[in-house]
Amino acid sequence: MEAHYVIKKPILTEKSTFAMNEKAQYSFLVDAHARKDQIKQAIEHLYKVKVVGVSTQVRKGKQRRLKVGVVPEPTTKKAIVRLAEGQAIELF
Question: Which partner for 50 in 4, 43, 84, 91 could form a disulfide, CB atoms 3.0-4.6 Å apart?
């Protein structure tokens, strides 16, 4: 899989920004079928950094009640990437 198909976008929340600054961990929304080794290669290729570890989480979509009725949200996959000591990614 191509690197830009694996990594969809970075997740920038208050909690993930704290982890960026304190622990050198970055959160990304990734393709649902991407494996950890593919995610590691994609991050190293796109951002030119050394990845130490990758953790993934699958978030099942919930049912949301809207004006038009009950609408299901899609299932998403999140990857938390740990970088080597002294490395950083500029996302802002």
Answer: 84
Which of 5, 4, 7 is CA-nearest to residue 81? Answer: 7
- Whole-angstrom Cα distance, residue 66 to residue 64? 6
Phi and psi at 75, nearest 5°, equal -80, 135
Residue 26 near residue 20, CB atoms below 8 Å: yes
Q: What token pair was written down for 91?
A: 């996302």
How far is the C-alpha of 80 from the C-alpha of 91, rounded, in Å?
15
CA atoms within 13 A of residue 63's CA, in its CB half-sphere? 4
Task: Tell me the average pLDDT across 69-74.
Answer: 95
